[in-house]
Amino acid sequence: MKRVFATEANVVIYPASGTGAWEAALVNTLSPGDRVLMAETGQFAALWRKLAERLQLAVEFIPGDWRRGADVAAIEAKLVADKAHAIRAVCVVHNETSTGAVTNVPAVRAAIDRAGHPALLMVDTISSLGSLDYRHDEWGVDVTIGGSQKGLMLPPGLSFNAFSAKALAATDRATMPRSYWDWREMLASNATGYFPYTPATNLLYGLAEALAMLFEEGLPNVYARHDRFGEATRRAVRAWGLEIQCAEPADYSSVLTGVVMPEGHSADAFRRVVLERCDMSLGQGLGRLSGKVFRIGHLGWFNDLMLCGTLAGVEMGLALAGVPHRKGGVDAAMGYLVDAARHALPRAA
Amino acid sequence: MKRVFATEANVVIYPASGTGAWEAALVNTLSPGDRVLMAETGQFAALWRKLAERLQLAVEFIPGDWRRGADVAAIEAKLVADKAHAIRAVCVVHNETSTGAVTNVPAVRAAIDRAGHPALLMVDTISSLGSLDYRHDEWGVDVTIGGSQKGLMLPPGLSFNAFSAKALAATDRATMPRSYWDWREMLASNATGYFPYTPATNLLYGLAEALAMLFEEGLPNVYARHDRFGEATRRAVRAWGLEIQCAEPADYSSVLTGVVMPEGHSADAFRRVVLERCDMSLGQGLGRLSGKVFRIGHLGWFNDLMLCGTLAGVEMGLALAGVPHRKGGVDAAMGYLVDAARHALPRAA
Q1: Opening angle at CA B195, ends B193 and B196, nearest 5
Q2: Nearest CA in chain B to A21
Q3: φ, ψ for residue B45 (rounded to 5)?
Q4: Are A180 and B149 an interchain contact pair (Cβ–Cβ within 8 Å)?
Q5: DSSP string of B267-325, one letter each residue
Q6: Pairing mode of beta strands B143-147, A158-163
Q7: From the CA of A42, how many Å to the nearest CA of chain B?
Q8: What topology is assigned to B219-344 in CATH?
């Protein structure tokens, strides 16, 4: 897992879903009443905030419009204003599954450094890990949160914390009651080849195979493949004349693409038609995007032809559901994929 | 799951192993600094104590010799002495997996009632649920903790809390920070057919099938089958001239039988011989019983012939490892199983 997180630091594996690893990141490093800075990038950022508040943390939540990554300038301003260094952690979601927008993690790190602020940087990579380029060490992240059911291609039930020496040192002053999530217990047991309690054994076998698949393809190739899917999908969406939920091209996600439904049409009614007629389940709009957005996932064990099939399902569904659109989305995607394949071919001598 | 717990009260399912459900029972009902009463019945009671102490609870631990269930008279004495009712919970392990001794839960309930004490009664049934008769409601238990990987015949990764209205009411004054384990969030989401976060989906499919298997056989028949395995195994152990770890016949476990190695012989060396020569993995002695005890498991999806094969492996292993013993253990078990089968046959007219 260290290779996937791109870290030489510590990685622990929990028998829990991703929400558990969110909680683990906070309870290992913080105390009740501590201030944390979070950024409203979408539904998952909102859920993480709710979790932090239930853990008796004081959350400053930078508002956002759910159409781009975290507002780095706002983060920097908050940190600069926090002369007393009361903020203990900055928490961002790398890939917002609810919108298809990516937060620029190195930019957040640079903002923290410019502010000369000692807050820990925590990043949720539950839906990006193993799909998008990610570098825990190089980007100066203190705690990275991951899960099994997205880029690692497994059922849900495993989750991860990668954490820096600085984060580990924070456990000494952190008074949040903890046991199941305690890093120190995990590290002590792992060092002897064991876990402190029963692990999710069968998922660990699956994880070994998932990692073998990722390393066989090569992580840079995996990331390039997802980038290709993202670009091909966006070309299809534009060809249909529909709007991409992520409004900031620099923040486009290669994991999924959120698509805005034309005014007066229900995204959920459209999704039902696609499910019934094409046997394909598209992601729903979450939270404030409910009924207004549908999501095209293109992550994990997925190839060009699976993407073409997926886009064909969307295009046919738009026609069947009577949603105003232009044809030509699948054509646009295929054109891009052909170009990409030509460039990837070895040159003739 | 309510049928398996024998309750009309609430049951929640966590994507976590059993230790997580231990933690859930405590963090939903207690506050840091609260006193809890626990009984040293073996390694799992000791681990639960350690977890409670990490959660900043003040544990009174009634000592025990790891050869019987919880000392009910000592529990009663502690509660009677606690005039201020400072003790918030009494926590016992139903089936001690490390020893093969069962705690008499109705007797613990009666002791609490005789003392007129308001403490919550919490019971770990991780290794007994679905194998031993258990009655959450009838026995007046407040929180029952269960896991997927024993009597429910699944991989580890799911765990359970069944809890009374009294336990649920205790959440209001309990100040332990909690989110992942929070019963109220679980109940609110479950009421709409959902979970508050990603569940361990594939294990839920397995659980549906495990429950179908248990209900097809009938829970009373499942419990009677395990009782038969326990008695047959103990007859084999006595025929070998070896000692049963559980020293109190009323507390014998029908889930597993701990066997004491003769002085001067290593249980682990014996277990290695059985593994290498017979391809069978016996349970090791845990904690203070390390090297001194081996454990014969007879739970879950298991029948008379599998038990005979298991006992044959032990008997041949004793011979191969040069452990002093008498032959005849398998014979003794078969004799008992034949009698049991005859009694189960319908009478001729």
Answers
A1: 130
A2: B180
A3: -60, -40
A4: no
A5: HHHHHHHHHHHH---PEEP-GGGTTTEEEEE--SS--HHHHHHHHHHHHHHHHHTT---
A6: unpaired
A7: 16
A8: Aspartate Aminotransferase, domain 1 (3.90.1150)
Residues of chain A in contact with residue B14, where contact means CB-CB under 8 angstroms, are 16
How do residues B243-302 score in pLDDT, each as one tens digit?
A: 999 999 999 999 999 999 999 999 999 999 999 999 999 999 999 999 999 999 999 999
Q: Which residues of chain A does B196 touch, with a Cβ-Cβ cutoff of 8 Å?
A: 19
The per-residue pLDDT for range A272-285, each reduced to its tens digit, is: 999 999 999 999 99
Decide if A201 and B155 are in contact by the 8 Å CB cutoff: yes
Rounded CA separation A75/A115 (Å) = 10
Indicate left, alpha or beta for A231 from its phi (over 0: left) and psi (-120 to 50: alpha): alpha
Instruction: Specify the pLDDT at position A161.
Output: 98
CATH number for region B2-213: 3.40.640.10
Q: What is the pLDDT of residues B142-181, one digit of tens each?
A: 999 999 999 999 999 999 999 999 999 999 999 999 999 9
Q: Annotate A124-177 with three-state secondary structure.
A: ECCCCCCCCCCCCCCCCCCEEEEECCCCCCCCCCEEEEEECHHHHHHCCCCCCC
Q: Looking at chain A, how many residues does it have? A: 349
> What ipTM is given for this predicted complex?
0.87
Rounded CA-CA distance A34/A36 in Å is: 7
Average pLDDT along chain A: 97
Residue with tokens 């349970």: B283
- pLDDT number for residue A349: 46
The residue count of chain B comes to 349
CA-nearest residue of chain B to A44? B197
CB B284 within 8 A of CB B297: no
Average pLDDT value for chain B = 97
- The pLDDT, as a whole number, for residue A343 is 84
Specify the pLDDT at position A312: 96
Q: How far is CA B284 from the centre of its chain?
A: 16
Q: Say yes or no to pLDDT of B346 above 70.
A: no
C-alpha span between A197 and B125 (Å, rounded): 16
Angle made by CA atoms B79, B82, B88, in degrees to the nearest 5: 75
The C-alpha of A189 sits at a distance from chain B's nearest C-alpha, in angstroms, of 14
Contact B151, B22 (CB under 8 A): no
Location of each CATH 3.90.1150.10 domain in chain B: 219-344
Binary contact (B180, A20; C-beta < 8 A): yes
What type of residue sits at position A182? D
For the cut 80, the answer to whether the pLDDT of residue B345 exceeds it is no
Query: Which among B48, B25, B27, B29 is positioned nearest to B103, based on CA atoms?
Result: B48
Helix, strand, or coil (residue B344): helix
End-to-end alpha-carbon separation of chain B, Å? Answer: 40
pTM, two decimal places = 0.93
Please tell me the distance in Å from A18's CA to the nearest CA on chain B: 7
Q: Which residue of B has its CA nearest to A49?
A: B179
What is the residue-wise DSSP string for A37-89?
EEE--SHHHHHHHHHHHHTT-EEEEE---SSSS--HHHHHHHHHH-TT--EEE
For A14, the closest chain B residue by CA position comes to B16
Domain with CATH 3.40.640.10 in chain A: 2-213
* Residues of A at the B interface, defined by Cβ within 8 angstroms: 14-20, 23, 27, 32, 47, 50-51, 54-56, 147, 149, 155-157, 176-180, 182, 185, 196-203
Strands A293-297 and B95-96: unpaired
Q: What pLDDT is attached to residue A348?
A: 53
Distance (Å, whole) CA B48 – CA B145:
11
Residue A21 to chain B, least CA–CA distance (Å):
10
Spans of chain A, pLDDT less than 50: 349
**What's CA B315's distance to the chain center, in Å?**
26
